[in-house]
Amino acid sequence: QVQLVEPGGGLVQAGGSLRLSCAASGGTFSSYAMGWFLQAPGKEREFVARITWRGGDTYYADSVKGRFTISRDNAKNTVYLQMTSLKPEDTAVYYCANQQGGSYRYNYWGQGTQVTVSS
User: Fold this and answer.
1) Which residue, among 53, 17, 49, has the nearest Cα to 36 in the 3D structure?
2) Helix, strand or coil for residue 12?
3) Which regions of 53-91 does DSSP assign to beta strands (E)?
4) pLDDT single digits (tens) 5-49
5) What are the tens digits of pLDDT across the range 51-72?
6) Cβ-proximal residues to 39 (8 Å cutoff; 6+ apart), any chain
7) What is the DSSP letter of 77?
8) Which of 4, 79, 93, 97 has CB 3.0 to 4.6 Å from 112, enough for a Cys bridge?
């Protein structure tokens, strides 16, 4: 089965930086892009950023523009989220997800990694 593994995450102080990664493996699947989402306790999952595999086109939520950078390494089937100027409100579980071609729905999800930003 397809696996999206997220080895990143951790605890950082406000203003600090952290890089998340997401490596895809385990099967064949249609992938147009990869996205990052976050979910705070008791809240619904929210979109953070996405990047297309082919052209590297990026799109960000307003809340992270100028602070977060999404990138990809096609050879490694890996997507990254470089987070800088972190704020306590960035604290959440972060999930990577595959956006499939055709439907453009997010159909495969990573296990999630906890990011905690202390004040």
Assistant:
1) 49
2) strand
3) 58-60, 68-73, 78-83
4) 898 889 999 999 999 999 998 766 689 999 999 999 999 999 999
5) 999 999 999 999 999 999 999 9
6) 45, 46, 92, 93, 95, 112
7) T
8) 93
| Alpha-carbon gap, residue 5 to 113, rounded angstroms | 9
Indicate the DSSP class of residue 76. Answer: G
Q: Name residue 72's beta-bridge partners.
A: 79
Q: Which amino acid, one-letter code, is at 88?
A: P
Single out the residue of 115, 106, 108 nearest to residue 5, CA to CA.
108
Residue 12: both structure tokens together: 């950082």
* Residue reference for tokens 């992938």: 31
What is the pLDDT, as a whole number, of residue 28? 64
**What is the dihedral sign for C-alpha 54, 57, 52, 114?**
positive
Q: For residues 70-80, give the mean pLDDT.
A: 95
